[in-house]
């Protein structure tokens, strides 16, 4: 099942300014990131976190990100669960 994304943040990598990390926040409140910290680190309880997802959780992400976009919740097409489309808002 595809989780609904409510917001996405872009962060510049500390080690390489040409690299950008994207952190997603889902409608259920969980987060996900594509940086190494997120993908390599797995806590004993099975949860993942990185500085980006922690910034999202603590509300500081908006200040330190390069860009942030919010998604309006898409509309499901009946039983098929196919998206009719996302709306993508520049913030
Ligand atoms: Zn991250």
Structural account:
The protein is α+β, with helices and mostly antiparallel strands. The protein has one domain. It has helices spanning 36-40, 51-58, 61-64; strands at 5-12, 20-26, 31-33, 67-72, 76-77, 82-83, 87-90. The strands form 2 sheets. It has a 5-stranded antiparallel beta sheet. The protein is globular, with a radius of gyration of 14 Å. The two termini are 27 Å apart. Residues 74-91 have low confidence and may be disordered. Zinc ion binds next to strand 2, helix 1 and helix 2.
Order of helices and strands: EEEHHHEEEE
**Helix content percent band:** 10-25%
Number of domains: 1
Poorly predicted runs: 74-91
Order of the strands making up the biggest sheet:
3-2-1-4-7
What gap, in angstroms, lies between the N and C termini? 27 Å
What's the gyration radius in Å?
14 Å
Major pleated sheet: 5 strands, antiparallel
Overall pLDDT: 80
Shape: globular
Bound molecules: zinc ion
- Measured by DSSP, the beta-strand proportion falls in 35-45%
How many E strands?
Answer: 7
Summing up helix and strand content along with how strands pair, one would put the structural category as alpha+beta
User: What's the helix count?
Assistant: 3
């Amino acid at each position: 099942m595809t989780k609904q994304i409510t917001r996405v943040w872009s962060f510049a990598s500390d080690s390489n300014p040409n690299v950008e990390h994207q952190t997603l926040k889902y409608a259920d409140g969980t987060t996900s990131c594509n940086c190494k910290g997120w993908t390599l680190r797995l806590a004993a309880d099975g949860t993942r976190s990185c500085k980006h997802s922690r910034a999202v959780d603590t509300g500081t992400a908006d200040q330190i990100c390069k860009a942030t976009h919010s998604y309006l919740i898409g509309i499901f097409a009946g039983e098929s669960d196919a998206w009719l489309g996302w709306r993508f808002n520049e913030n």
